[in-house]
Design a protein that fits this description.
This protein has four domains: about 15-195, NAD(P)-binding Rossmann-like Domain (Rossmann fold, 3-Layer(aba) Sandwich); about 205-445, N-(1-d-carboxylethyl)-l-norvaline Dehydrogenase, domain 2 (Orthogonal Bundle), CATH 1.10.1040; about 460-600 and about 645-690, 2-enoyl-CoA Hydratase, Chain A, domain 1, CATH 3.90.226; about 630-635 and about 690-785, no CATH class. About 45% of the residues lie in helices and about 15% in strands. The strands form seven sheets. An eight-stranded mixed beta sheet has the order 3-2-1-4-5-6-7-8. A seven-stranded mixed beta sheet has the order 15-16-17-19-21-23-25, sandwiched between helices. Strand 9 (about 295-300) and strand 10 form a beta hairpin. This is 3-hydroxyacyl-CoA dehydrogenase NAD-binding protein.
């Protein structure tokens, strides 16, 4: 119920960001990614003629940032630069004001006094501070201002890191927390963790402790930063940046500052003391990526090739390769996470010693912080997953390794058990999470529901799994909707994946379901077709089998368009090759904003054979105005496919034509499946089965001639290779409508699919294509033959 003492909070439609440094500009960019207009303000530099210099510079840096801060460069137009002297009054039309200025209490307090006078009385006010308590910042402000104030701590880079910590004070109104939670979740696509107003909040409190302790355990075990990163990255279910690369990305000065503050506020048993070599690095200005060098340094060798070297902390010199090889990590690679963690936790030698000590420290500290940084263990797990890129949080990791075994190891390490672990020991419990409940910091149990649909949790109910194979499953996701989930390595598309889509269509009709969703929650939607199978058939001259395989693939992708029920595809991350072709044929697409989608078959000497070539020609032709020539549509399709263009976001996928204007971009990847289900249910009433088109106009031989002319020029200029020419000619024949066709003649979708299949088979039989496929499988990189 709305507090009658305060006016209702308006929807957040415009935001002011104060502070145009790296973080402020990146926050503004992400707001713009979500379609939100932003005012970006900073101070006036007396030596610059342009009073908005800093804000404009912040936008330019965000445009040049790598990884890219903007999902689409044109979104920068949503940001209006300004300065705090001339434009502070303009924040009066903003519904949310967030600061990202210097981490100095007096600077923030002075700013809030000015903001209170300029902002409207219904605006939410937030600080992005990573360490200064929120309550201290608003001392002296009015009760109304304090009631609308809440910490909003983004993790850098805001576009890519999922976590948004919200830190209400004792004065923050509940509806402010609720409104910003929903806005952050649904509009900005963030994972929301509500943290207590304590130093370091949740993720940095636990994460920085882990980094500090890792340095000590590295020295004790006699390892190097590169060796530590080899066993604390993906093999441990952590981010690719692992431990010391993460420190470089965060900034060593920031870690030093946060660690010093946390040491000041923490008890005697919380050791945030950084080793001397770390202080020496910061003293010399070695601060990580921002200074050009940290634990790792990027440079050029004598041939101009980029090389990365690693710091020897004992000598202060950069020596050796930036990546270290680990036999332990290699032996565990590719195994399920639980097996990898078990192998790391029980390993012999320095690597095992380091992992046990580091993990035990992280378990002990997370349990100690439970109830202090947050009253919810799931929030602590989620903070580490969403802020630091862990696959599982500390409490989930303890469950995988065995809670009671971990407790025994913590005690053996000489650490006194926090109250939570003592209660777990006394009860003999092996799990923090139960069916619909979770353990509280006090050791009791309370109801718990995941913040979004999680397929692995859903499938614990065996009645929800309709069919299952090694590489794919059919799952009932409720409300009369079935889902096809792929769960193979890279979700490469083979027999299991195709057969399950076909079976799902039968189940929808036989059991009276409303429709079908194609989605998964793996690392990628799909990296494409099963290349080893294609190469094997080609080398064995098994052309009848390959022809049948391609027909089946085409029939399965197009079944998403031509079934008697609605089919919605929800891709995320990589949707390449065949994964892109499945996406193209859905009745609707609910795409994760982070979508790297493209028809990349030319890289292995093929063309899209699952309807991708047909679909792009059809789409671009349909966009032409009556009377317009066909050539621009053919050229656009040829350029997209022939250059293997991959979108860098779902927004760019729309611009490229890979997604339709009517398709939905979902900022929060965890909400894709629920949004896809909603679209199935919206389409189902009165759904009429579409029929294949018979009226696609083509250019015939004129298209082949135009494409050949362009290809010749590209080859002469050295942009493409001889074999690129061979592949391009096959692509041109499909886009032309086939041999013997004339300009303006109309063909069917099936005719174009047949041409695709013929071109695919022709190319698969050539030595150049087989060399490209083999090279890709061996190195993961395209061959330029």
């Amino acid at each position: 119920m709305q507090d009658r003492q305060h006016p209702p909070l308006p929807p957040i439609r415009k935001v002011a960001v104060i502070g145009a440094g790296v973080m402020g500009a990146a926050i503004a960019a992400h707001l713009a990614n979500a379609g939100i207009p932003v005012r970006l303000l900073d101070i006036v530099l007396p030596d610059k003629e342009d009073r908005n210099f800093l804000a404009k510079a912040g936008i330019e840096k965000a445009l040049k940032a790598r990884p890219a801060a903007f999902m689409l460069g044109s979104r920068a137009a949503l940001i209006t630069p300004g300065n705090l002297e001339d434009n502070l009054k303009d924040i009066g039309d903003c519904d949310w004001v967030i600061e990202a200025v210097l981490e100095k209490l007096e600077v923030k307090q002075e700013l809030w006094a000015k903001v209170e006078a300029a902002a409207k009385k219904t605006a939410i006010i937030s600080s992005n501070s990573s360490g200064i308590p929120m309550q201290m910042q608003i001392e002296g402000r009015s009760e109304d201002f304090q009631s609308r104030f809440i910490g909003a701590h983004f993790f850098n880079p805001p576009r890519y890191l999922h976590l948004l910590e919200l830190i209400p004070t004792e004065k923050t109104r509940p509806e402010v927390t609720a409104a910003l939670s929903e806005f952050g979740r649904s509009v900005l696509g963030k994972g929301i963790v509500v943290a207590n107003d304590v130093p370091g909040f949740v993720a940095n409190r636990i994460g920085v402790y882990g980094i500090v302790r890792a340095m000590k355990h590295m020295q004790d075990a006699g390892l190097t930063p590169a060796q530590v990163d080899a066993i604390t990255g993906p093999v441990a279910g952590r981010a690719k940046s692992a431990t010391f690369r993460t420190a470089d990305l965060s900034g060593l000065d920031i870690i030093s500052h946060v660690a010093a503050d946390l040491q000041k506020y923490s008890g005697d048993d919380e050791d945030f003391t950084l080793p001397q070599f770390f202080h020496d690095m910061v003293g010399k200005g070695i601060l990580g990526d921002k200074s050009g060098s940290g634990f790792f340094k990027k440079g050029k060798d004598e041939n101009g090739k980029t090389v990365i070297t690693a710091l020897d902390v004992a000598t202060g010199e950069y020596t050796g390769e930036g990546k270290a090889k680990s036999k332990l990590a290699e032996a565990l690679k590719g195994k399920p996470l639980a097996e990898r963690l078990e192998g790391l936790y029980t390993a012999e030698g320095p690597e095992g010693d380091f992992m046990r000590a580091s993990l035990n420290d992280s378990f002990w500290y997370a349990a100690k912080m439970a109830g202090y940084v947050s009253g919810n263990l799931a929030d602590i797990d989620n903070a580490m997953k969403w802020g630091f890129g862990w696959e599982v949080g500390p409490f989930e990791t303890m469950e995988l390794l065995g809670v009671q075994r971990v407790i025994g190891n913590i005690e053996a390490a000489g650490l006194s058990l926090p109250p939570l672990l003592q209660r777990m020991k006394d009860s003999g419990a092996e799990s923090f999470y139960g069916e619909g409940e979770i353990v509280t910091p006090a050791g009791d149990k309370t109801p718990y529901e995941a913040p979004y649909l999680i397929l692995t949790d859903l499938k614990k109910d065996a009645t929800k799994v309709i069919k299952k194979k090694a590489g794919a499953s059919i799952v009932d996701i409720g409300d009369g909707v079935l889902l096809v989930e792929w769960h193979a390595k890279m979700n490469a598309l083979g027999e299991d994946q195709l057969r399950m889509v076909q079976e799902a269509h039968k189940q929808v009709q036989a059991l009276g379901y409303a429709g079908l969703v194609v989605a998964n929650q793996g690392e990628n939607f799909s990296a494409g077709a099963n290349l080893p199978a294609i190469l094997s058939m080609a080398q064995d001259d098994d052309w009848d089998e390959m022809d049948a395989t391609i027909r089946e693939f085409q029939n399965t992708t197009t079944s998403l368009r031509f079934s008697p029920h609605p089919c919605v595809v929800a891709p995320h991350n990589l949707a390449l090759g065949g994964g892109c072709e499945f996406t193209l044929h859905g009745d609707h697409v609910t795409a994760s904003a982070e979508l790297y989608m493209g028809l990349v078959e030319v890289g292995v000497g093929l063309i899209p054979g699952g309807g991708g070539t047909k679909e792009m020609l059809l789409r671009f032709t349909d966009r032409l105005q009556p009377g317009q020539p066909l050539l621009p549509a053919v050229q656009r399709a040829f350029e997209l496919i022939g250059t293997a263009k991959v979108s860098t976001s779902a927004l760019e996928a729309k611009e490229l034509g890979l997604l339709r204007d009517s398709d939905t971009v979902v900022m929060n990847p965890n909400l894709r499946i629920e949004e896809a289900k909603r679209h199935v249910l919206a389409l189902a009433p009165g759904y009429v089965q579409p029929q294949m088109r018979q009226d696609i106009p083509v250019m015939g031989e004129d298209a082949v001639a135009a494409v050949k002319s362009a290809v010749y020029g590209m080859r002469q200029a050295g942009y493409i290779t001889d074999y690129d020419v061979v592949v391009s000619e096959q692509l041109a024949r499909v886009l032309s409508g086939g041999v013997g066709r004339t300009r303006g003649q109309k063909v069917s979708e099936q005719h174009l699919l047949d041409l695709e299949r013929e071109a695919f088979l022709t190319l698969a039989g050539k030595k150049g294509t087989q060399q490209r496929i083999g090279h890709m499988l061996k190195t993961g990189k395209p061959l330029r033959n």
